[in-house]
Specification:
By secondary structure, the chain is an all-alpha fold. It has helices spanning 3-27, 29-45.
Length: 61
Amino acid sequence: MDPAEAAAKDEFFEQVSRVSEEMIQAYGRDFAMGVLLLAARYIAQTRPAEAAPVPQIITQP
């Protein structure tokens, strides 16, 4: 991994850390963990745009 990519990924980790701390302070650890788990589940279950099926129009005869 090149240094620019590593730095960009590190910034995302820092952002997630900051948001996590804010959620913990505002609503507690259980809330923060729940949000992060739901986000992980959403990422795991969402198909990439290129894999999405092509919409079809179905008409009745």
